[in-house]
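User: I'm writing a short methods note and want a consistent example. For SWIM zinc finger family protein, I'll paste the sequence; you return only the structure tokens, no commentary, since I'll be parsing the reply automatically.
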Amino acid sequence: MSSQVQEYVESPDLPEQIGGTPAFSRPEGWTCSTPWKRAQQEIDTGGPINDAERMVRLSDGEGVHRCTWALKGRTLLAECDCRGYQFHGGWCAHVASLWWQWINGEIVVNHLDTGREYPTPPAWLELDAPAQKHVFEDLTPAETDAYLSVELTDAGVREWARHTDRSPGTVGNQLRSAKDTLYGGVER
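Assistant:
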């Protein structure tokens, strides 16, 4: 097994989308949908390909499907190469299975900006919202991490510093720098 870290490169197998990979959204009535029922009943024997993609193989399904499943900014990027995903407007049993596994702590999801792994959905995650383009691109990974984890949740600077083995001053400085970059020095 190689010890090299694979970087995310968007799969050429997935259809071209204007604006990139879409953000995860759940259709109206999703909890009663066939994909959601399959996600809860079938076993996924697939696994991660790289930081942003997973192979999904459902026990009663026909073959293996490649899915993008990663965090970027405050959104979850989700896409599947199956026909059901295209037909149902971004909802299929494979995407539903990944959501089911994640909310139950069975898989980890990587944040492409910070490199942090999330075993369950973070408090700052925006669901059913369009992907935010370029909001965090001017921030360093550490600034993005501090902003998402402190500013957008109820975690304090000291608590997050302890969690990440950094000093409170470092986290506070990263948070201040992120706010200055995002808001142009104007406190919000």
